[in-house]
## 1
Amino acid sequence: MAFLRLRGRRSAGALRHRMTLEAPVDADDGAGGLTRGYAAIDHIWASIETISADAAFADNRPGARLTRRIQIRWRADLDTGKRLRLGARIFHIRSVADADERRSRLSLTVEEETP
C-alpha cells in the first residue's frame, strides 16, 4: 500500500493502525534455561497490506501463513528480532527496508501469527 499523497505530501491518514512495538526479553526459567517474552517499547502508526496467504502447519495444526507489508515512519531501532502487536494480533518482522531511501519511512515484511 503506497502512502496517500496530498499536495505532494504523504497523508497521515494512510498510517491508520496504532501498533505496539515489542522487543524480546529473556528470563531465567529456574531450570537452567531461558523463557522468551516480549515487552512493549513504543507505540507507532502504520499501514498494513496483505502480500500473500498460504496454508501452513505449525505444531501439527492447520493454519495459515500470512505475509504482510507494514509501512511506518522511519526509525533507526528496528530489526528482525522485534515484533509488532495490533490488539491480539502478532506480527514477526522478517525484513526492514528504507522504502524511499531518504529515511522518511520504512517498509517491513512481516509474518502474522495465526491460531
Note: Residues 14-112 form a domain with the Thrombin, subunit H fold (CATH 2.40.10.270).
## 2
Amino acid sequence: MLEVGFLAAHLLWKTTGSDLRDIYRMITTSAARSLGIEGYGIEEGTPADLLVFDVESVAEALHYQPVPTLVIAGGDVVAETSVETTLSL
C-alpha cells in the first residue's frame, strides 16, 4: 500500500507533512473502515497485525517505500529483516 500512497501523493500534489499524513491514513485506517474491517488500528484488544518500518516519518515511509523490519501477525513476529553493512578496507 505504500506504493499506492506514493502515487496518490504525486498525482494529487500532496507534498506537505500534513498532506502526507492524510495520504497515510487513507491507505491504512480509512481503507480498513471503507472495507468494513472491524478491530483495526493500534489499540488494546485489536489483532496486532502490522508492519514496522525503520523510518523517522510518514514522509520517509511513502518516499522510500522500505522493506519492513518486522512483520507482526496476530501479535507474533512472523518475519524480520535486518541490514548488515560491511566495510572492507
Note: Strands lie at 50-52, 70-73, 76-80.
## 3
Amino acid sequence: MTIHHFGEGNSLLNQFISEIRDANIQKDAMRFRRNIGRIGEILSYEMSKSLNYQSKVVQTPFGTKEMSLLNDKWYYVPFYVPNFPYTREC
C-alpha cells in the first residue's frame, strides 16, 4: 500500500484544508460544505492516477485519437453525510 501525504508538497488541496481549519470560515456553512466537496474531488483525481488503463482508439469528428481509458470496471457510489444535509450527488 502506498501512502501519499499531500500536505508535504504544494497542492491546491492545502488551500481548501486551511479554509476548513480557519475558525472564521467555519462559520460559513455553505463554504465549509463546498470545500469538503472540493477536497473529495481532488482526492478522487489523485486516486484515479493509480487505476489500470489501456490504450484504445477513439473516433472523433476530426479523425481518430489513441487515448488511455480505464481498463477495469469502476463504480460511482454516492453517499449521504448526515451532518451535511445539502450534500449533492454528482
Note: Residues 9-70 form one domain.
## 4
Amino acid sequence: MELLCASPNAVLGVKDGEEGSRVVAWLPLIFLGGGRLPRMEKVKEIVERLLREDERCRNDDKWLTYRVMREFTRIFIPFTDFENIPAFATVKRVRAKIQNSEGRFLPTDLKVRIRRGLQEKEMRELMRVK
C-alpha cells in the first residue's frame, strides 16, 4: 500500500501497491497535520482555546469536535451534515468493544496492534500527569 496526499490539508489517499492500481480509499485529514498526528499537547491547546472563546463548545461535544476538525483541515462539511455523523469516539469505542471484548475482527497488521497499544499507554500517562 502507498499513501498519497492530494494536498497538505485536504485528503489522504491509500493506494494498493501494484502498478496501475487504483486508489482504494480517500480519507479526510482531520487529525493529520503535515503528514503526522499532532501531539496531544497541541490538541489540548486548541481545545482549551475553543472552550475559552466559544461558549457553545463547552456545551456541545459535536460542535467542539467540528471546530477542532476545522483547525486541522480545509475540508468543509456543513455542521448540519456533520451533526448526523456518529461521534468519532463512539465509532472507536464500538470498534474496540468488538475487537477487545468480543475478540472478533482483530487487526491483521502488527503495526496497528503495536500503535494502538502505545497510544493507549501515552494517553493514560498524559491523563495521569495533568
Note: The helical segments are 40-53, 55-59, 61-72, 79-82, 88-101, 110-129.
